[in-house]
Amino acid sequence: RTDPDVAGNIGISGSTSVTIDTTAPTVTVNQAAGQDDPSTSSPVEFRIVFSSTVYGFTSSGVTLAGTANPTTVSVTGSGTTYAVAVTGMNRDGTVIAAVAAAQAQDAAGNANLASTSSDNTVTYDDNVAPTVSITSFTAGAGQSATISGLAGVGLGDSPTVTIVLCTQSSTVCTAASTKATLTANVNPTTGAWTVT
Protein backbone atom coordinates (compact mmCIF):
# COMPACT_ATOMS: atom_id res chain seq x y z
CA ARG A 1 0.00 0.00 0.00
CA THR A 2 0.91 3.64 -0.43
CA ASP A 3 0.02 6.61 1.72
CA PRO A 4 -3.42 8.16 1.04
CA ASP A 5 -3.67 11.25 -1.12
CA VAL A 6 -5.31 14.48 0.02
CA ALA A 7 -8.71 13.02 -0.80
CA GLY A 8 -8.04 9.97 1.32
CA ASN A 9 -7.60 7.51 -1.62
CA ILE A 10 -5.25 4.68 -0.87
CA GLY A 11 -3.17 3.40 -3.80
CA ILE A 12 -1.93 -0.12 -4.37
CA SER A 13 1.66 -0.51 -5.49
CA GLY A 14 2.89 -3.43 -7.65
CA SER A 15 3.99 -4.45 -11.16
CA THR A 16 2.75 -6.70 -13.94
CA SER A 17 4.95 -8.56 -16.45
CA VAL A 18 3.62 -9.29 -19.95
CA THR A 19 5.51 -11.41 -22.48
CA ILE A 20 4.85 -10.56 -26.12
CA ASP A 21 5.71 -13.23 -28.71
CA THR A 22 6.97 -11.63 -31.91
CA THR A 23 9.11 -14.52 -33.13
CA ALA A 24 8.16 -15.77 -36.59
CA PRO A 25 8.11 -19.58 -36.97
CA THR A 26 10.84 -21.01 -39.15
CA VAL A 27 10.17 -23.98 -41.45
CA THR A 28 12.25 -26.61 -43.21
CA VAL A 29 11.29 -28.68 -46.26
CA ASN A 30 13.24 -31.84 -47.11
CA GLN A 31 12.77 -35.22 -48.72
CA ALA A 32 10.68 -37.56 -46.59
CA ALA A 33 12.42 -40.45 -44.88
CA GLY A 34 12.50 -43.39 -47.28
CA GLN A 35 11.95 -41.28 -50.39
CA ASP A 36 13.93 -42.73 -53.30
CA ASP A 37 16.19 -40.33 -55.16
CA PRO A 38 16.21 -40.82 -58.10
CA SER A 39 12.61 -42.00 -58.04
CA THR A 40 10.58 -43.83 -60.68
CA SER A 41 7.27 -43.73 -58.80
CA SER A 42 4.65 -41.16 -57.88
CA PRO A 43 3.93 -39.53 -55.47
CA VAL A 44 7.19 -37.89 -54.51
CA GLU A 45 7.16 -37.20 -50.77
CA PHE A 46 8.55 -34.40 -48.63
CA ARG A 47 8.47 -33.55 -44.90
CA ILE A 48 7.73 -30.06 -43.61
CA VAL A 49 8.68 -29.10 -40.05
CA PHE A 50 7.83 -25.77 -38.39
CA SER A 51 9.72 -24.51 -35.33
CA SER A 52 6.47 -24.14 -33.39
CA THR A 53 2.85 -25.21 -33.72
CA VAL A 54 1.17 -23.39 -36.60
CA TYR A 55 -2.38 -23.03 -37.82
CA GLY A 56 -3.94 -22.55 -41.24
CA PHE A 57 -1.34 -24.46 -43.23
CA THR A 58 -2.81 -26.18 -46.31
CA SER A 59 -1.67 -27.56 -49.66
CA SER A 60 -1.88 -24.06 -51.14
CA GLY A 61 1.06 -23.13 -48.93
CA VAL A 62 3.41 -25.47 -50.81
CA THR A 63 5.25 -24.10 -53.85
CA LEU A 64 6.16 -26.66 -56.53
CA ALA A 65 8.92 -26.34 -59.11
CA GLY A 66 11.22 -28.53 -61.19
CA THR A 67 11.71 -29.78 -64.73
CA ALA A 68 9.41 -32.82 -64.21
CA ASN A 69 6.50 -30.32 -64.17
CA PRO A 70 4.83 -31.38 -60.89
CA THR A 71 1.30 -30.02 -60.61
CA THR A 72 -0.53 -31.41 -57.58
CA VAL A 73 0.26 -31.44 -53.87
CA SER A 74 -1.49 -33.13 -50.94
CA VAL A 75 -0.74 -32.15 -47.32
CA THR A 76 -1.49 -34.09 -44.15
CA GLY A 77 -0.47 -33.37 -40.58
CA SER A 78 -0.89 -30.72 -37.89
CA GLY A 79 1.02 -28.80 -35.27
CA THR A 80 4.67 -28.64 -36.28
CA THR A 81 4.99 -31.50 -38.78
CA TYR A 82 3.35 -32.09 -42.15
CA ALA A 83 3.69 -34.75 -44.87
CA VAL A 84 3.59 -33.65 -48.50
CA ALA A 85 2.82 -35.89 -51.49
CA VAL A 86 3.52 -34.47 -54.96
CA THR A 87 2.04 -35.87 -58.19
CA GLY A 88 1.30 -34.78 -61.75
CA MET A 89 4.82 -35.14 -63.18
CA ASN A 90 4.67 -35.62 -66.96
CA ARG A 91 8.31 -36.18 -67.80
CA ASP A 92 11.76 -36.96 -66.45
CA GLY A 93 13.30 -34.20 -64.40
CA THR A 94 13.39 -32.68 -60.94
CA VAL A 95 10.67 -32.18 -58.33
CA ILE A 96 11.17 -29.35 -55.85
CA ALA A 97 8.98 -28.34 -52.90
CA ALA A 98 9.18 -25.19 -50.76
CA VAL A 99 7.04 -23.04 -48.46
CA ALA A 100 6.81 -19.31 -49.04
CA ALA A 101 6.58 -16.80 -46.21
CA ALA A 102 3.22 -16.13 -44.52
CA GLN A 103 1.56 -19.46 -45.32
CA ALA A 104 0.73 -20.27 -41.67
CA GLN A 105 0.81 -18.58 -38.29
CA ASP A 106 1.51 -19.51 -34.67
CA ALA A 107 -0.79 -18.97 -31.68
CA ALA A 108 0.45 -15.39 -31.32
CA GLY A 109 -0.39 -14.60 -34.94
CA ASN A 110 3.19 -14.53 -36.19
CA ALA A 111 3.43 -15.59 -39.84
CA ASN A 112 6.10 -18.11 -40.85
CA LEU A 113 9.31 -17.21 -42.61
CA ALA A 114 10.16 -18.72 -46.02
CA SER A 115 11.42 -22.29 -45.81
CA THR A 116 15.01 -23.45 -45.83
CA SER A 117 16.17 -26.88 -46.97
CA SER A 118 19.13 -29.20 -47.00
CA ASP A 119 17.61 -31.44 -49.70
CA ASN A 120 14.23 -30.50 -51.12
CA THR A 121 14.88 -31.77 -54.67
CA VAL A 122 14.09 -35.26 -55.98
CA THR A 123 15.14 -36.48 -59.43
CA TYR A 124 12.17 -38.13 -61.10
CA ASP A 125 12.26 -40.69 -63.93
CA ASP A 126 8.84 -41.53 -65.35
CA ASN A 127 10.23 -44.83 -66.64
CA VAL A 128 8.57 -44.18 -70.01
CA ALA A 129 10.55 -44.68 -73.21
CA PRO A 130 11.04 -41.65 -75.48
CA THR A 131 8.45 -41.28 -78.22
CA VAL A 132 9.11 -40.96 -81.94
CA SER A 133 6.74 -40.02 -84.75
CA ILE A 134 7.38 -39.86 -88.51
CA THR A 135 5.15 -38.01 -90.92
CA SER A 136 4.20 -39.94 -94.04
CA PHE A 137 5.98 -39.14 -97.26
CA THR A 138 6.43 -40.48 -100.76
CA ALA A 139 9.75 -42.07 -101.57
CA GLY A 140 11.80 -40.43 -104.25
CA ALA A 141 14.21 -37.65 -104.95
CA GLY A 142 13.30 -34.32 -103.38
CA GLN A 143 10.90 -35.84 -100.86
CA SER A 144 11.26 -35.12 -97.16
CA ALA A 145 9.85 -36.27 -93.86
CA THR A 146 9.72 -34.76 -90.40
CA ILE A 147 10.83 -36.95 -87.55
CA SER A 148 10.02 -35.75 -84.05
CA GLY A 149 9.57 -36.98 -80.54
CA LEU A 150 10.16 -36.46 -76.85
CA ALA A 151 13.29 -37.35 -74.92
CA GLY A 152 14.23 -37.17 -71.27
CA VAL A 153 15.77 -34.07 -69.76
CA GLY A 154 16.62 -35.61 -66.40
CA LEU A 155 19.98 -36.07 -64.78
CA GLY A 156 22.24 -38.04 -67.12
CA ASP A 157 19.99 -37.72 -70.18
CA SER A 158 21.69 -36.73 -73.42
CA PRO A 159 21.07 -33.21 -74.78
CA THR A 160 20.90 -34.63 -78.33
CA VAL A 161 19.09 -37.42 -80.18
CA THR A 162 20.73 -39.36 -83.00
CA ILE A 163 18.54 -40.66 -85.84
CA VAL A 164 19.93 -43.26 -88.22
CA LEU A 165 18.18 -43.66 -91.60
CA CYS A 166 18.61 -46.99 -93.38
CA THR A 167 17.45 -48.58 -96.61
CA GLN A 168 13.78 -49.56 -96.75
CA SER A 169 14.51 -53.28 -96.79
CA SER A 170 16.61 -53.16 -93.62
CA THR A 171 15.18 -54.58 -90.42
CA VAL A 172 18.37 -53.77 -88.54
CA CYS A 173 20.58 -50.84 -89.45
CA THR A 174 24.12 -51.78 -90.35
CA ALA A 175 26.98 -49.74 -91.70
CA ALA A 176 26.15 -50.99 -95.20
CA SER A 177 22.45 -50.12 -95.03
CA THR A 178 22.84 -46.74 -93.33
CA LYS A 179 21.93 -43.86 -95.62
CA ALA A 180 22.20 -40.92 -93.23
CA THR A 181 22.80 -40.09 -89.60
CA LEU A 182 21.03 -37.03 -88.20
CA THR A 183 21.39 -35.28 -84.87
CA ALA A 184 18.65 -33.26 -83.20
CA ASN A 185 19.00 -31.00 -80.19
CA VAL A 186 16.65 -31.75 -77.32
CA ASN A 187 14.74 -28.80 -75.86
CA PRO A 188 16.08 -28.71 -72.27
CA THR A 189 12.69 -27.72 -70.86
CA THR A 190 10.15 -29.73 -72.86
CA GLY A 191 12.31 -32.58 -74.20
CA ALA A 192 10.93 -32.06 -77.72
CA TRP A 193 13.16 -32.64 -80.74
CA THR A 194 12.58 -32.43 -84.51
CA VAL A 195 14.54 -33.09 -87.68
CA THR A 196 13.44 -32.86 -91.30
Give the arrangement of secondary structure elements:
Layout: E1 27-31, E2 44-54, E3 62-65, E4 72-87, E5 93-99, E6 121-124, E7 131-134, E8 147-150, E9 160-166, E10 178-185, E11 192-195
Antiparallel strand pairs: 1-2, 2-4, 3-5, 5-6, 7-8, 8-11, 9-10
Distance between the termini: 98 Å
Low-confidence stretches: none
Number of strands: 11
List the secondary-structure elements in sequence, H or E: EEEEEEEEEEE
- Overall, the morphology is rod-shaped
* Proportion of residues in β-strands: 35-45%
Q: Can you give the mean pLDDT?
A: 83
Q: Which percent range fits the helix content?
A: under 10%
The number of helices is 0
Largest sheet strand order = 1-2-4
Textual characterization of the structure:
By secondary structure, the protein is mostly beta strands. It is built from no helices and eleven strands. It is rod-shaped. The relative contact order is 0.17. The mean pLDDT is 83.
